[in-house]
């Protein structure tokens, strides 16, 4: 990584902290900048740079996810639906019955999860 990239990353992180602090303070930008001795033009300049950097990073993530095959899902029927509960988080899925509980990370292969669910249904 070049020195210029490292420096820019450091500055972006520095200004991200400043902007987050201002947002959490609830102050208007003008009041915060006056209190901290920051030029409001510089504040808005770095806010714009942060937004562009975040947009570029999001576009990069979206293009990567377009190349990844989406997981396939299989329908699972349980004779007693009242004993089956499940939660889905940003990074995991958790399925629980009276007898068993399965928690899998978001990167867990869908085919393997389907196999595990198949075995779970057999046990119910």
List the helices and strands and how they pair.
Layout: H1 3-25, H2 29-36, H3 40-67, E1 85-88, E2 92-96, E3 101-105, H4 110-123
Antiparallel strand pairs: 1-2, 2-3
Helix pairs in contact: 1-3
Task: Explain what this protein looks like in three dimensions.
It is a single chain. By secondary structure, the chain is mainly alpha-helical. It has two domains: 3-67, no CATH class; 81-123, no CATH class. Helices cover 59% and strands 11% of the residues. The protein is built from four helices and three strands. A three-stranded antiparallel β-sheet has the order 1-2-3, covered by helices on one side. A hairpin with a 3-residue loop joins strand 1 (85-88) and strand 2. Helix 1 (3-25) crosses helix 3 (40-67). The longest helix has 28 residues, at 40-67. The radius of gyration is 24 Å and the shape is elongated. 1% of the residues are buried. The mean pLDDT is 74.
**What fraction, in percent, of the residue positions are helical?**
55-70%
Strand content: 5-15%
Task: Give a short account of the largest sheet.
Answer: 3 strands, antiparallel
Tally of DSSP β-strands: 3
> For the residues shown, what is the average pLDDT?
74
What order do the helices and strands follow?
A: HHHEEEH
Largest sheet: spatial strand order? 1-2-3
In DSSP terms (H or I, runs of 4 or more residues), the helix count works out at: 4
Query: How many domains in all?
Result: 2
SS-based class: mainly alpha
Determine the N-to-C terminus distance: 54 Å
Shape: elongated
Spans where pLDDT lies below 50 across 5 or more residues = none
> Over all CA atoms, what is the radius of gyration?
24 Å
């Amino acid at each position: 990584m070049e020195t210029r990239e490292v420096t820019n990353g450091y500055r972006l992180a520095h200004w991200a902290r400043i902007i987050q602090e201002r947002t959490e303070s609830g102050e208007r930008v003008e009041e915060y900048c006056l209190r901290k001795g920051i030029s409001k033009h510089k504040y808005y300049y770095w806010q714009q740079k942060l937004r562009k950097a975040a947009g570029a990073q999001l576009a990069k993530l979206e293009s990567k996810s377009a190349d990844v095959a989406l997981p396939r899902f299989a329908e699972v029927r349980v004779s007693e639906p009242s004993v089956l509960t499940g939660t889905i988080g940003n990074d995991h899925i958790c399925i629980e019955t009276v007898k068993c509980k399965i928690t899998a990370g978001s990167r867990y292969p869908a085919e393997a999860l389907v196999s595990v669910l198949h075995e779970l249904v057999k046990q119910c």
